[in-house]
Amino acid sequence: MPPMRPTCGHRTGDHRRFGLLGTFVGFSAARLARWDIPEVLPLPAPAIFAGNHRSLFDIVVGFHVFWNCRASVRIVVAKRYFDHWLMGRLLRTAGFIPMAPGRAALGGVKASLAALDRGETVVLMPEGRLIPPDERPGGVGPPGAGIGILAARSDAPLGVCAITGSDEVWPLGRRFPRLRFGRFRPTVRVLVESLPPLAPGDRQDRDRVAAAVMAALAALVEPAE
Fold first, then answer.
1. By CB neighbour count within 10 A (0-12 exposed, 13-18 middle, 19+ buried), where does 119 fall?
2. Does the global pTM surpass 0.85?
3. Which of 61, 91, 130, 204 is deepest in the core (most CB within 10 A)?
């Protein structure tokens, strides 16, 4: 399937607010990093995109990448970020979906499935937490249950977003991003690809679909580093 401009498909009920914040985030992000990101998305809506997670800056990356494609999507974020008075308000305004850990994740899963049923695109980070370098020898860490559940309960096509360089902008353990300017800014690179259709039996097996997604992510992340 050829890449598609997402302007007619990847929209949500929050797309104007997502776009406003995406424009502001993109303007700010340009001062923190150099960017190598796609202009189009390889899948029409609704779709499930899975990305790796190694930095708090990945939230900015998600905003910037998808709005660069003129797409507004429903991005799944850990519920604890919604507890911050300012960040929580911004995330809710842009239509982000909170995901609690463990058994409490059911609410986030239901919200994601409802969004997919409405024809919206959902973006999540299957690892479920920031993965330090020593826990990602192959480029990515182990997945949580979320991606397998979504894939098993929805027939939306799957895509992967491989992010590198975000932890150079905002390293794990730092309270704020590093401020570097001009040619000293690190490069954030994002590769987005569709996942080949899985056999029906594999699609219903949560562990198999999670393994397929992480293998596809690792295959994109490793050469880009």
1. middle
2. yes
3. 61
